[in-house]
Known about the structure:
Elements: E1 3-9, H1 15-28, E2 33-39, H2 51-68, E3 74-84, H3 87-100, E4 105-109, H4 117-122, E5 125-128, H5 136-155
Parallel strand pairs: 1-2, 1-4, 3-4, 3-5
Helix pairs in contact: 1-5, 3-5
Amino acid sequence: MQNIDLICVGKLNAPYFAAGVAEYQKRLGAFCKFRILELPEAPLPDKNASPAQIEKALEKEGKAILGAVRRGACLAALCVEGKLVSSEEIAALLAARAGSGAGDVAFVIGSSHGLAPAVKAAAQVRLSLGRITLPHQLARLVLAEQIYRACTINAGLKYHK
């Protein structure tokens, strides 16, 4: 069974997002070994942090992210410069990895400041959920749903219409 990880910087603190993500996590159990890893946001001195302070925080988060990725997993980073993809393209990515024998995939959502350049450089795939800006908690819910949708597409189920 394929391992699919969702690595996120920060916690889900809104109960309605947590409930939605938990529902898709439960559903995904029929298709893959799905786990969510929540990594702490690097602390910043205040809301008006300097670019250098933000860069240092991103670097710390980046090391934690790269340390959490399973060995041999395809790293798929969500970032603003990522490729806009359809549900079918996410399904194709998962199917290609599963068919290659090296099936593990790790999707990564960074903090509100984004992802460290090292994470983007290490990513085999850079994805975007769209041109709109989503709060990271909502992005986690949307991505969990899209991973579920991709699995149902690959299984030939009617969830995706």
